[in-house]
């Protein structure tokens, strides 16, 4: 009986480690994919179309439209992941834009300024940890 209990505990431990690793991998892939496509979106809208030279009026809705268009060639579904996030904040300024999302599933916030090819911030939260206001995070990067 004692051996069975130990084996069950070890199995549960291994399963929980595996689940945590899968969740971390999913978070890492999302953060990298988001930052990569944001650089592409920024380049595309900065050079072509109605936002050429000034992204100040670039909105969250327009961002999702551009993402959906660009996703067709990349097979990534970042726009649906963003829309499914429990919280999001989007802001733009003359030369760039920023997006912050909170995913309850991943228990994390991802912040990405389209100026860089890498995620600017990823924060994983514990179960009962308070989630900060996403706008206040983005204000630190100079966005309103």
Task: Give a written overview of the molecule.
With 144 residues, the protein is of the alpha+beta class. The chain has one domain (2-139). The protein contains 4 helices and 4 strands; from the N terminus they run H-H-H-E-E-E-E-H. It has helices spanning 2-47, 60-74, 78-84, 134-139, and strands spanning 87-93, 96-103, 108-113, 121-124. The chain has a 4-stranded antiparallel β-sheet. Helix 1 crosses helix 2. It is globular, with a radius of gyration of 19 Å. The termini are far apart. 28% of the residues are buried. Mean pLDDT is 82; it is low at 11-22.
Short description:
By secondary structure, this protein is an alpha+beta fold. Helices cover 51% and strands 17% of the residues.
What is the topological layout?
Layout: H1 2-47, H2 60-74, H3 78-84, E1 87-93, E2 96-103, E3 108-113, E4 121-124, H4 134-139
Antiparallel strand pairs: 1-2, 2-3, 3-4
């Amino acid at each position: 009986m004692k051996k069975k209990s130990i084996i069950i505990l070890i199995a549960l431990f291994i399963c929980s480690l595996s689940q945590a690793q899968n969740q971390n991998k999913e978070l890492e892939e999302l953060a990298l994919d988001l930052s990569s496509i944001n650089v592409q979106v920024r380049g595309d809208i900065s050079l072509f179309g109605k936002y050429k030279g000034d992204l100040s009026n670039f909105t969250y809705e327009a961002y999702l439209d551009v993402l959906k268009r660009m996703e067709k060639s990349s097979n990534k579904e970042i726009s649906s992941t963003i829309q499914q996030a429990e919280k999001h904040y989007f802001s733009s300024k003359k030369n760039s834009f920023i997006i912050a999302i909170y995913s309850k599933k991943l228990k994390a916030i991802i912040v990405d300024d389209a100026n860089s090819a890498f995620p600017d911030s990823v924060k994983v939260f514990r179960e009962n940890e308070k989630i900060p206001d996403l706008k206040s995070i983005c204000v630190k990067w100079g966005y309103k």
